Structures are given as structure tokens and as C-alpha cells.
Amino acid sequence: MKIHLTSVFVDDQAAALRFYTEVLGFVKKHDVPLGGEDRWLTVVSPEEPAGTELLLEPAAHPAVKPYRDALVQDGIPLAQFAVADVQAEYERLRGLGVRFTQEPLAAGPVTTAVFDDGCGNLIQLASEPQ
Amino acid sequence: MECVADDLFKALADPTRRTILDELTESSGQTLFEICSRLSMRHGLGLSRQAVSQHLAVLEAAGLVETRREGRYKFHDLNTAPLREITERWLAPGESAPEESTP
């Protein structure tokens, strides 16, 4: 078994695609109309084009808002992305106006940080295991 | 007054709560998630989020931690003002409260 796809709920798929590609640097993998305005919209890392896809899923279901509001209030991220240098990525994203709820925190071999994707979610950055 | 002191000494009596204050001293304005991360990753304290929340509530009752809502987030700030009561309470006769040092 493989983890082939995972998802985050996003308020606006078009805005989410812009953020996840233009700001975070992922690339679009699938974009299929699902009827209405909803799309089956996935992105992948350019470092792993055949790797795990992230589905940018519409957040219209009424259960999504209370679920995410409660998690965001406590600063809890819904996904984790790995980068070689968390501090450098933090500075790059801050320069692009991304809001962080946790600045880079070094703890033993791992450094983490948490930012708001502007689509309703907090995302954790973690340093890749050396 | 004695009530306030009770809350303060009770809050300081627990080593986990003192560790939370240590971590807030390093960086004030932390989410619950960050406080939990620091306790587990830096101190090996495997506490549930609920347990950490309860510790924070005790610290807040003592006035040592204040919470601040900012948009969708909630941050915890350190407030050391209540600790001054301790240093000013048991002054030796004739001794005055510590003052700002002058050059």
C-alpha cells in the first residue's frame, strides 16, 4: 500500500492553486471539472512529480468550518511539508507576505515552523532528515 | 490578596508549568500547538493537549500567562508582573524594594 494522495480543504480553489503553485512552488498535476464550480485539483512537488499528490478540496461542507476554526485557534497544522532549510524558507515566504503562527523552532535534529496558507489552513514546515 | 498569592504559588509549584514559563521567556506569543511542541520535542514531556491546556489555565488564573486573540489565532503571552509581589513581600527590615539600577 502507498500513500498516493492526501487533501486539504480550501476556501477558494483558484486562489489555493495560485498560492500552492506560485508561492509554495508546487506544480499542478490534475485539474478536472466536477460539475458546478468544483474541480478535482491536485498539486505535486516538482522534486517528486510522481510523488504523493495534494488534493485542494472545496471547503463547502458545513462540517469543515467549525473543524478548521477550532484547529487554527490552537495553532494546529493540517499538513506538513519538508524543506532542506526551514529558516531560509521562512524568510522567503515571509518576504512574500505569508503569515507565520510559529517561527522556526529548533528542537534536537528537527526544525519546524507553522504558516497560514490563506485558504483556511495552517501548514507545518519541517526540515528534511539529514 | 492572599487568594491571589495562593493562585501564584500553586501555579509555580508544578515543574511542567515552570517549564512552560521558561519556554515563554524565550519567545512570548505562542499557540497551544507551539507550547505542546516545545514540551514534547525539547523536554520529552509527553502530555496531551488537554493536559497542557489545563496547565495554561492555572497559569492564566495566576496572571502569569495572558491570552490574546489575533484574527483566527490565539496566542499565549508571558506576564511576569505578579512575580514582583513575591520579591516585595519578604523584605528585611529597613530594606527597600529593588529599584531600577542607575548608571
From TrEMBL, chain A:
Q: Which domain of life is it from?
A: Bacteria
PROSITE patterns assigned:
VOC
InterPro entries in the cross-refs: Glyas_Bleomycin-R_OHBP_Dase (IPR029068), Glyas_Fos-R_dOase_dom (IPR004360), VOC_core (IPR037523)
Every copy of the VOC domain together lies at 2-128
Question: Which PANTHER family does the record associate with it?
Answer: GLYOXALASE/BLEOMYCIN RESISTANCE PROTEIN/DIOXYGENASE, GLYOXALASE_BLEOMYCIN RESISTANCE PROTEIN_DIOXYGENASE
What is this protein called in UniProt? Answer: VOC family protein
Q: What is the lineage of its organism?
A: Bacteria, Bacillati, Actinomycetota, Actinomycetes, Kitasatosporales
